[in-house]
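User: Structure tokens for this complex, please. No commentary.
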Amino acid sequence: MKNTHTPISFTPETRSRSGDGMLTALQDMVRACMQCGTCTASCPNAFAMDLAPRQMWRMLLFGLKQEVLESRTFWLCSACYSCTLRCPRGLPLTAAMSALKRLATAEGGSANRKKALFYQEFMHNVEQNGRIQEMSFMCRYFLAMHNPLLPLEYGPLGLKLLAKGKLHLGGSGQRGRLGPLFAKVRSMEATT
Amino acid sequence: MKYAYYPGCSLGTSAEEYDVSSREVLHRLGVELSEIPDWTCCGASAVEPVSRLLTLALPARNLALAERETPGLDMVVPCSACYLNHLRVGRECAVDRSLPGRINEALGAEGLSYAGKVRVRHLLDVLANDIGPEAVAAQVSRSLEGLRVAPYYGCQALRPYALFDDPEHPRSMNPLIKALGATVFDWDMGGRCCGASLMATRRDVALVSVAAILDAAAGADVIVTVCPMCQMNLEAYQSQAHHADTISVLYLPQLLGLAFGLTDEQTLLHKNLAVTGALKDKLCACEAASA
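Assistant:
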């Protein structure tokens, strides 16, 4: 199978606003941070991060965009919303983690673009099929990652799911249904 | 009681047992479901890192369909990621008044419109609060006495919007478990993250969370879940998480179905990836005691 498609692209803020518009929007999300560290203490994945979330918010406010985009911290957010729930300032920290993933996809270089592939391949599959087709999505993801060991890691689980009749190879009746909505959102995000 | 039903993509494929057992259990409890016609993917946890507007527009499409096709009904959602995505649309529109216009401009591509009329409900919320433990107890034909059940809530049913449970110390499942005759296994891992999609992107990190949860469940007969992502992470990676003994992991409606005496075709336990012989023995003992 040849990997011919371009990964789905949604990088509105950079295309439209001035280069730093996306950074300003992100800074606004965390501007009231008082550096208490509740986010870091609440994060189940903080042990694997290079920057603690608390540090990262401060660096963003200092405008250290490149340093933050070189970090792996925001890619390790699993959207558990513990930090958002507990932040005494009520800041939307989980949403800020997602915004950082979007910013890194747009401006963060090839290493970041590779980390974004999982989400992009997922949404590419949704755009095509209307409902996610887990089997074809994972196959595309493996191809896009160019890592021959990855399919092997998933092999045993894949076979187990196949044996249980849980992997469907057929298409979805909603195939193509989301094409117009995706196209409209793409054009709106390019112009606003 | 009647609800609009949004199963979500997983329930049509890898979480078929969650879909079937939910429908059967709700039917037994006198609940009528009307599946939203032509529903599509809500974007799960993948959409927010890709597009901000699509994060709202994808679930808004389903909400618009529900408004048109199943008017006046609450929408019940069994998957926690789907639940949060649909719930978030109304919540965000309430604080940013420019959003409804943008969402509707996007939905206009399909001739749909979203008015924010549908109340989004998690399946657990409906079971615990609309139906309640008394109605559940009335359907029990095979008491699960002696079964120690660890309730696992995960993240997105509880956070960031704490609508039907305490997001720090969740306990909405306790009365339901007790209504089945079973014992609630007391632990503090019910709201701990399973790692979610990090299992695909950084498995080493997700496995730390899974191992912590499974270790804390030692002494329980079964973990019950209310989300296909949590279920998959807890049942499918037990050996990689270096967990010595397999622990059974079921969906909550499957446990209800067992106590209601539903058939194998209605509970679909054979579809689960982690059901131990010890659990099967205990269930047989429960059946013998109730006979």
